[in-house]
C-alpha cells in the first residue's frame, strides 16, 4: 500500500522559501536604486552585497526556515522565527562583507535592510498563513485521523484537532467499545475487538495518515497489535496516555501544541533542516562519485560487452521511501537471466561472469546508483532497497520490516558496515538487518552518515567476505 502523505506541505514550504529569496532581492534592488549611501557604489561592491545577503539568508534558513505550513503553530512562534532569521542573516551578511573588505562601513545599511525585511516578512507570513488556512478549509493539504478508545483525553484532543478546520485534519471516525453520546465525535467504525479482528484477518483497513490510541494498560497486547499494523502500513502511530503508566512498548514523547502524545518512532529526518543537510551531503558525494565514474565507464562497458553481451546497465524496480517503486541502476554483473527479479546473488552464483564478480567484490557495480541519489530516489546512506518480490515476502515475515521505508533507501547503510551484508539465507539475518536499519533511522545525524561513508570506503580496499 502506497504511503498516504501530505504531499503539498513540502511544496508550500519551498514556495515560501523561494518567495523569501525573491523578496530579499527585490528589496536589495530598491535599496540600490534609492538609498543615498549606495548611489556611488561600484557594480562590484553592489554584487558583493547581493551575494553576501543571499548567502546569509540561505545560512539562516538552515536553522530558522518557515514553519507556517505546520499545523499546530502559534503566531508568536512564527514571529520569533522571523526575528531570529533576520538577526542571524544580518550578522552573517555583516561578517561576510567585512571578510571581503574590512574598511567598508556597512553595519547601518545592513540594519536598515534587516528592519525593512522584518516588516515585509511579517506581512508576507500573515498573507501566506491566511492562504494555507484557506486551502485547508477547502479540503486541500489535509491529514486523515482515526481514534481508538473513548477516554476523555481523546475528547480534548478532538477539540484541538477538529474544531479548527484551518489545521487541515479530517476525522475518519473512532473505534471504541462504548459509543459516544456526543454527535461531534462522528462515525463509530466499530468496537475495539472488531478492529483487532480485522488486523488479525489481514483485512485492509483505512486508518488514515495518523492513528491516536488512548487505551489502558490492560489493553497492552492490543496496543502492540495496532503499533505493528501502523509500522507495516506506514501510518504514524500516537499513544495518548490516560495516566502516567508504563506500557512496555518503546514509545517516544512528542508535544502536539500543549498536548503530550507518544509515537513508536521518532525520525530525525522528518525535520526539514536535517533533510536539507542530508540532501546537500548526498549531492556533493554523488557529483564527485559520478565524475570519477566517467573515465572508467568505457573500460567497464567494453569488458562487460566482451564477457557477457547485453545491456551495460542492470535496471530493476525496487521499493523506496513511502513504499513507492523506483528503478534502481547498477552495472550489470550477471548474465541476462529470468531470475533477476526474484533470486538473491549467492557466493558461487553461476549467473555471474568473471568481471561482474570482480565489480561486486569491490562495489564497482553500485556506482550508477549515485544517479539514483541525484534524482532523489535514493540517499548515499540509508536502508538498502530490496527488490519488490523480497519486500512482499519480508513484510509478512518480519514484524517491523516496513519501518525502514520511512526514509529513502541508500547505496550503503548501518547494516552493511556492521556485518549484515550479502545473502540472507536465514530469517534472523534479515531481522538483524532490519533492526540495524531502524536504529539508523531513529539515531540519524549528519556525522553518522559521514562515519558510514568512511567505513564503506575502507571496505572497498579491505575485501568483505560477504561482498558477492
Automatic annotation (TrEMBL):
Superkingdom as given in the UniProt entry: Bacteria
E.C. designation(s): 2.7.8.31
One Gene Ontology molecular-function label: undecaprenyl-phosphate glucose phosphotransferase activity
Localization of this protein: Membrane
Coiled-coil features, chain-numbered ranges: none
Domain Bacterial sugar transferase intervals: 278-461
Record organism: Xylanibacter ruminicola (Prevotella ruminicola)
Official protein name in the record: Undecaprenyl-phosphate glucose phosphotransferase
InterPro entries, alphabetized: Bact_transf (IPR003362), EPS_sugar_tfrase (IPR017475), Undecaprenyl-P_gluc_Ptfrase (IPR017473)
UniProt keyword terms in alphabetical order: Membrane, Transferase, Transmembrane, Transmembrane helix
Name of the top EC class for this enzyme: transferase
One Gene Ontology CC term in the entry: membrane
Bilayer topology annotation: Multi-pass membrane protein
